[in-house]
Specification:
It is a single chain. The chain has 197 residues and is an alpha+beta fold. The chain has one domain. Helix content is 25%, strand content 31%. The chain contains four helices and seven strands, in the order βαβββββαβαα. Strands 2-3-4-5-6-1-7 form a seven-stranded antiparallel sheet. Strand 3 and strand 4 form a beta hairpin. The longest helix has 19 residues.
Length: 197
């Protein structure tokens, strides 16, 4: 069995609207949020096809397991005088999630099953569903493959002269608490406005 290794990136996000009170305490931890969302069944769409994520019973303190399942049809051939028919069949890929974040971060291993689809895009569709269906959550989940520096530079060397563009996308952390500063300025402006009346 071949598995793809990926890393989960959880970005803290401030839920609510511009007018909500800032600084509310977090309801879930970086470790607890993936545990809560991946401990339940959910249905998501990937490339206009329906997929189901189904969790396994608990595998331990920091390890979750589950399966991503996709329905497809297979042709059942019968005797020459009988008509062949398409019947539904379910293909699944195992998913294992380390929520601990110890050492080098939270990780995911997904079984590569051709009938289910390429693991990275399928799992990205699953996390997109989680992000969009939980807009009030404390965390936003992104996922990327785990690559080695050696593998990266080998790809560069093998494609020297063929690479015409490289796009890098970063989810920058809010180191200086910019939103908090904005809330403070808005509150000060509101106080001044109320005193001026």
């Amino acid at each position: 069995m071949l598995y793809w290794m990926m890393r989960l990136f959880l970005s803290e996000r401030m839920a609510g609207t511009f007018f909500d009170t800032p600084g509310r305490p977090q309801r879930s931890t970086r470790e607890g949020y993936p545990r809560s969302v991946f401990s339940n069944n959910f249905i998501f769409i990937h490339r206009k096809r329906t997929y189901v994520y189904t969790p396994f019973p608990s595998l331990g303190d920091h390890l979750l397991g589950g399966a991503i399942v996709r329905q497809h049809t297979i042709l059942i051939r019968k005797a020459p005088e009988a008509k062949s028919e398409d019947v539904p069949d379910w293909e699944s890929a195992n998913v294992f999630i380390d929520t601990s974040g110890d050492g080098d971060g939270q990780k995911v291993a997904i079984q590569d099953v051709a009938a289910v689809g390429a693991p990275l895009p399928v799992f990205r569709s699953a996390t997109d569903y989680i992000n969009s269906s939980n807009p009030g959550s404390d965390w936003y989940i992104a996922v990327n493959t785990i690559t080695s520096a050696i593998g990266f530079w080998e790809a560069v060397e093998n494609n020297r002269g063929k690479i015409t563009e490289l796009d890098l996308t970063f989810a920058a952390p809010n180191t200086w608490k910019g939103v908090t500063g904005l809330w403070e300025r808005a509150a000060t402006a509101t106080d001044r406005q109320q005193r001026g009346r």
